[in-house]
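Q: Got a minute? One more chain.
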Amino acid sequence: MKNFAATLMLLYSINCFSQYADPNYPIPASGYGADGTHAVAVETFDNPNFAGHTVNIYHPADISTPVPTIFYSHAYGGTDPDNIIGMLNFVAKKGYAIVFVPYQTLASTSTPERYANLIAGFRKAAQDYPNIISTEKVGVMGHSFGGGASFGIAHELFTTDGWGTNGRFIYALAEWYSYNADNSILSSFPDNTKVLIEVFADDTTNDHRMAIDIFNNLNVAPSEKDFVMVPSSTVNGYNYQAVHNLPNTSAAFDALDYYAYYRFIDALADYTFYGAPEGKDVALGHGSAAQVTMPGEMNPLQSISAPYPIHPQSYYSFPCSYQDNPRADYCTAAAIDDIAGTEVVLFPNPVNDVLNISATAPQLNVNVYNSLGQKIVGYSVQGNYTSISMQGFAQGIYLVEVNGNTHKILHN
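A: Always. Here it is, folded:
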């Protein structure tokens, strides 16, 4: 087990931020993920529980009435909002407010104290700026430590405070261990809660089992929650790295930020707060083309209705079963690397919408044949995972060839 502070503080040691610098694909020009038109204003006040730091509220400067608001919990050590300033500005440009509350990461503070400090900052922001912040339409979002914290914090704000009566969502990325989230809490979220959980395929920091556990035990209706994995890609020699510190404006700022992150915030907010069906098709699309398609030659995203780990726990700095995880008893899922003699796993089988393929190989060469032996899909991807949308395929038996090995699947 690597030192917690030493590992995660390194991820947020750069305070300067870069401009968009993708050599292959521009920022989306329209639709979800495209930059909004609002000018951005920032309100600040002293953090009541973290001396020397401020709470920042980013919001559209040209709107004088309360707007739907996202409450953001940063990663461990990510106390400087410049680390994710691209995302904060994006949200405000789209017409929403977003509240950034830094919390202590010293050894003298405990995880429950950090949760309490985040909640206190969120509450004070809502209390002091009612002309900006709507607590009727609320999103709770977080990354890493903040991703794990999002569920306990959201439950507190949704149930104790009653926030989100006209729209609630949770968007958790690359989540660390979740405290204040036993099964009694996970089974009692309000009916209108939407949830999107996102993991990064080449994240070596936080075990995907933490995210899988929370996803599986939430009482949110299957149609209102989704689990997305972002793969890495290489296009024209440029590496799009789906690693733990994505997104991070202070590092590479490219199509992954816009198409695999900002686009989902945009769509999830539009669906949650305004009921837009096209927003649901993107954010909670369960493998729809609108959800998983990435620009150009980038690997498609993978929406997984029954999430399955692709690496053993030893792959991660913070394995799910570590003693610091209060939900360590729910880390039972085995990865393909743990299964003796297994090189390729296709799931689910039978398949309805999306077929997921994981393998112990650095590249996948995939061919799909129908029952007549006709090839209907063929492609290669870098990495040990991919997914195939089966929507539009006739029901029946298909042969899927992966790196020369053939597997039979049934499409219902």
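A: The chain has a mean pLDDT of 89.
Q: Perfect, thanks.
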